[in-house]
Structure formats: C-alpha cells, structure tokens
Amino acid sequence: MGREDQIEEREVLESIFPDEITGEEDQDPPTILLQVRYPEDYPEKPPHLDILAPPNATPHEHFNIAEDRDQLLASLDDTIQENLGMAMVFAIVSTLKDNAEQLVQERKDVITKAHEEAALAAEAEENKKFHGTAVTPETFLKWREGFLKEMEEKRQQEEEERLAELKKAKTKEPARMTGRQLWEKGLAGKGDEEEDDMPVEGIEKLKVEAA
Question: Which parts of the sequence are annotated with region: Disordered (predicted)?
Fold first, then answer.
C-alpha cells in the first residue's frame, strides 16, 4: 500500500468514525532528489544516478540520505535491468519512491514492536504481583518438607514448655516424707505419745461409756 492509499484510507475511516480514530500524526515523508545523467548510448546503457538531500531539508527521524544512499541505489538495479533498451527514468523514480517509503516504514515497525514488547514486559512484571509460584511436584515436596519440619519444631517447643510447667508445679508442692524419713526426724510415734499424755480419768470414762 502506497503513501497515497494510506492517507486515503485514514481519511475514510476518520469520516466514518470521527471519535474513535485517534493517533499521532505521522512525520512527513522524507524528501530526496534523484540526480540523473544520461550516457550517449542511453537507453541501451543505464543512466548515471545519485541520490541527494534537498537544500535546507528537515532531518527525518527514520531516514538519512548519507546512510541510506547506497542501499537505495542498489535497490534500483533490478528495475534498471528490466527496462534496458527503453525509457526507464519513470520506472526508476517510482521504484525509488516505493523503496524509500518501505525503508521508513520498516524502521517505524521496529520501533513500534520494541514499544509493544516493553509494554508487554512491564505488564507481565506487574501481573507477577497477583500470581503465586506455580505448583510443581518439586515445589510441593519442598514445601511439604519445610511444613513438616516447622510442625515438628513447634511440637517439640510445646512439649518443652509443658514439661517446664510441670517441673515448676512440682517444686511448689511439698514433698510427702516416707516412713523412714519420719522416723529419722523423730516424728514417728509422736501421735501415740500424745495419746499417752491424756488424763486417765478421761480414758476410764470412755471405757465405761463404751461398755
């Protein structure tokens, strides 16, 4: 599609969708001068060609004559060979125009693609915030191992705390002395001695009442 076709299609779309069609205006296509010098045996021999920049030409973002001259001149070889023996300047000019426009468009496409890839990369990076790690057999086994280890450590800690509480409770409770310990401390039989000290009268009275 040539430049004229693109402009025409854009104008038609804008007339149908005046509010929906938006976008930045493209920079004007580059202007180039084709210098043609005819040899004496033209058109049996091709003309001598050169591509020049117009005086005071505005620099173009995607085209530079100093850098693109050789490539564009080489792109005219097939057209020249196809038209040897006949007038060929018009065909050469048309081919040069199309090739220059294609060169500019390819460079625009490269930039557009780079912007799209950068936007997709930024979007993918942003989406990582909303997605967890994908579960695989390897990641599950690793998680399970860590989970079981954490549960075992927690169980051991709780058991240690429980034993510490029991130990603390036993320390506060007075220990019950064995019979030997009571005897050694002179406490064994003390109750009997106290009974022997009771008044005899009281005992006899208890005996009488019991009879």
Answer: 1-29, 159-211
